[in-house]
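Minutes, project huddle
Topic: does the predicted pose make sense with zinc ion bound?
PN asked that the exact inputs be recorded in the minutes so nobody has to dig through chat later. Recorded below.
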Amino acid sequence: MAGGNRHPNKEIRKAIVDAERAGWAVAHASGHSHRWGNVSCGRGCEVAIWSTPRRPGDIAKRIREAVRKCDHTGRGEPADND
Ligand SMILES: [Zn+2]
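Predicted holo structure (tokens), as shared on screen:
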């Protein structure tokens, strides 16, 4: 990550780093107060990240699950299901 746009929550930050390692792109939505940004695999999977989530663990979990279930990156065989 370029730095400077780190999420305030440690748990979410770690999940974001894991997503990046899995080849996901992180988009930081500057100018939005509640939406921090999102992570996406670039081929259909996307998880929105809020700046001050009520339960940060839920978002971290959602990111991890999405990355784990995603079949679009890391295996060299792009899925075309939808
Ligand atoms: Zn995907």
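Observations noted during the meeting:
- DSSP finds two helices and three strands in the chain.
- Residues 28-71 form one domain.
No decisions taken; revisit at the next huddle.
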